[in-house]
Design brief:
Length: about 160
């Protein structure tokens, strides 16, 4: 595969991911307006805004990266911000909130009894899952950075 085909695929994926986020946003607006429960409608409205927020960075010009370039980027740009920042932004907010939003997209959600308990349980579950996923990615990148000798380069 030559460089031009790779760049075309990356640009195409950038457009597709943006469209997916925008369609998800419109779907959440639709669900919010058709909801009889005001709490669910408000959560789905916030979900629509979150999907729009996710559409913005997915449209940023991307370049083809190897796993070594990704680890170098993490080591020099993300690692200095700290473990807590990385886990909260990449794990809890990005993965946990997205998982909870996918749960919110269930149109039959309003028929559940104890909706507040169900929503709270799912929110905590997804946020904890996002926390552990962010921590796992941090540790994985840290091990890869040690294998690449990035700690020695920095000193």
């Amino acid at each position: 595969m030559d460089i031009n085909k790779g760049n075309i695929r990356i640009k195409l994926w950038s457009i597709v991911s943006r469209l997916i986020c925008i369609v998800a946003s419109f779907y959440f607006v639709y669900l919010a307006f058709n909801s009889s429960n005001y709490i669910i409608a408000a959560l789905r409205g916030m979900g629509a805004l979150f999907w729009v927020y996710l559409a913005v960075p997915s449209g940023v010009e991307a370049k083809k990266s190897s796993s070594q370039e990704i680890v170098r980027f993490w080591f020099y740009k993300e690692k200095p911000k700290g473990l807590v920042y990385f886990v909260l932004t990449k794990g809890v907010v990005l993965l946990g909130a997205t998982g909870f939003l996918i749960w919110l997209s269930n149109p039959n959600l309003e028929a559940k009894e104890n909706l507040l308990l169900s929503a709270s349980t799912n929110l905590v579950t997804y946020l904890l899952g996002g926390f552990f996923m962010g921590w796992f990615v941090w540790r994985s990148n840290d091990k890869k950075a040690k294998k690449l000798g990035l700690y020695k380069e920095k000193n």
